[in-house]
Amino acid sequence: MTVAAGIGYALLALGPSLSLFTAVISHKPFLILTLLSSTLVWLMSLIALSAVWRGFIPFKTAAWWPYALLILTSVASQEALRFFLWRLYKRMEELLDAFADRVSKPRLLITDKMQIALAGGMGHGVAHAVFFCISLLTPAFGPATYYVEKCSRIPFFLVSAMIALAFVTIHTFSMVIAFSGYSEGNRTDQYFAPVVHLAAGVLTLINLGSGGCIIGIPLLYGMAMLTLLHCGKLVWRRLTENRRQGNLY
Amino acid sequence: MEGGSILETIGHEIIGVMSPVSICMLLVVLLVYTVYNPSSAAATTTIRTAANLVYLESPSDSTAQKLEGAILNAVVFVVIITLVTFLLVLLYYYRFTNFLIYYTRFSVFMIFSVMGSSILISIIQRFDIPVDAVTFSVMLFNFTVLGTISVFSNGIPIIVKQSNLVVLGIIVAAWFSRLPEWTTWVVLVALALYDLAAVLAPGGPLKLLVELASSRNEELPALVYESRPNVGRNSGARDSSLGLLVAAGLGMSGDNNSGSVELQQLWRDGNTDNRTETRERDHFAIAVGENERTNGVEIEEVREDEGETAPLMGDGDLTERWSRRDNVDNSSDGNRVPQGNEREAMEMEEMNARGIKLGMGDFIFYSVLVGRAAMYDLMTVYACYLAIISGLGCTLILLAVCRHALPALPISIALGVIFYFLTRLLMEPFLVGASTNLMMF
């Protein structure tokens, strides 16, 4: 029974990513490699962050501002990482196009570019879910569960799985938005990802208050929905524009 | 190739190696996690293998004692491996190939029957599976015989062979992951260093072995996982894609490369023209000297690099041809067999039959590392898995650049060990502190 619960939590956090992985990514080796390397890069950034913050955690005070500072620095570093990934991707794209010319295959289509961005974003999202949720699930397979004092109605594992799902969605699709923003030079899309990421991080601060998770999680899902909608609209617009121009590159 | 974007064609060979390694690691982690959990009874009995001959770790020893004992163990283990590998080279040099093959079969039989049954029994005990002794032994015998036959025989479907090798890797890795903690870490590092020396240093035993095998144009008499490319005419173009991409990345474009494109097109079209063509083609082979506990690993890449090649028979499904390397000056006489003044100058090779080869030692010691990480926490498992896989990816990319046999352990093991300790010391307190407050970002 508890094993079922543990697997359930894991699937709650990673189920959508899993289906996306099998549907889109798994039969394109290059996308799998992109996913893996983006996960690794995110993990390295997390290790660097924790090296910086290791001395201060756990916070002695009950105040919320150290956590706010923590989230601010983390989001800032991860957004810098996103920009770095974009630069890397840009060079990769040239390489791939050159390679495609040499083996006389079509160059990268716009859908291919979006899939690469999706795989990169999913790498971040999966890394987030794995390290913040799945790796803490070990006790969930045992015979008991765990409640956090501040959120005493819902088991901790369920809460963290729900939050992880929201963050996976945000990470995955905001990468598509950001990459498309960078390539088109669209300011709104470029700033969309950091703003949503920061807002989502700040929203988890509500969980510090007693019973705050009742309010914080629906708001977080609001952010996730916003990201999804924006990404859907953006992809739809670019695809129709391309089709109208008859130009797929 | 037939349509599709290039995303589907790049990286097949990498994934072909990564997926069995991932499966092996996953199963070892599950096994270690459920059966050899430190709280369960099976873990309390430490075993004595070649890897801890000198010193048997006990939890009450001081850190200095543990470290000293672990280093001694590792040194003894590596010395034994070196001696056995040299013996292997010697036997191979004097053409005791049949002896080696039968010995390897025998050790595979022993691994499957003795170690495999011990692991199966602990699984049965752990999950209270109702099975009687007769059924168990008949099934085990069947399984063992299939596993033994599938090594070194060509009549077996490749998928059976591959899965048997993965099972073999799991069994040995699960066995090794019962070593004491300190010994495991020191032995892993020592093996990575040994691997580096044995494959790359002049006179290293594995280097000798690979050179000997390639000069005789034989398969290595050792346990090697082969990821064969999809059979068919496309496979050649497919497994050269990585090298081409890397070459493009290094800016090695030039006349030769345009020539290579030309040839690939011609070849793909099944053109039977007998003219001399230049093409670039990668050919990977990873070999290992393996015996029961000896695992050295290397990746061998035989590559015809931008040399003049002339098909012996200008047919599309031709499997052998002469290749020449770095002899552009001599190439004007075209289709003749070149005078082999270098060892690599003349190589006859099969075109489609070989893919990347990865030694069983890699499988085993990657899995040992991950299995050891699984005894601490799941978080370290993920970190180590990512580190090892990316190390393997780096090695494969280096292989496309360096074009000779490469050790597959050092990069992966180094990354794995570094990530394990970073995760354990730095990241875990941070993450647990943040997420038990429901702080995420």
Q: Give the radius of gyration of chain B.
A: 24 Å
- Major β-sheet of chain B, in short? 4 strands, antiparallel
Q: Tell me the helix content of chain A.
A: over 70%
Unreliable segments of 5+ consecutive residues of chain B: 230-240, 251-354
Round the Cα radius of gyration of chain A to an integer and report it: 19 Å
Number of helices of chain A: 7
EC number (chain B): 3.4.23.-
Keywords (chain B): Endoplasmic reticulum, Golgi apparatus, Hydrolase, Membrane, Notch signaling pathway, Protease, Transmembrane, Transmembrane helix
Subunit structure (chain B): Homodimer. Probable component of the gamma-secretase complex, a complex composed of a presenilin homodimer, nicastrin, APH1 and PEN2.
GO molecular function, one term (chain B): aspartic endopeptidase activity, intramembrane cleaving
Strand-helix topology:
The complex is a heterodimer of chains A (249) and B (441).
Chain A: H1 2-25, H2 29-53, H3 65-102, H4 110-132, H5 156-184, H6 187-203, H7 213-245
Chain B: H1 12-34, H2 63-93, H3 97-127, H4 133-150, H5 158-176, H6 181-200, H7 205-216, E1 224-227, H8 234-239, H9 241-249, H10 255-268, E2 277-278, E3 284-290, E4 295-301, E5 308-311, E6 320-324, E7 346-350, E8 356-359, H11 360-374, H12 378-402, H13 409-435
Antiparallel strand pairs in B: 1-8, 2-5, 3-4, 5-6, 6-7
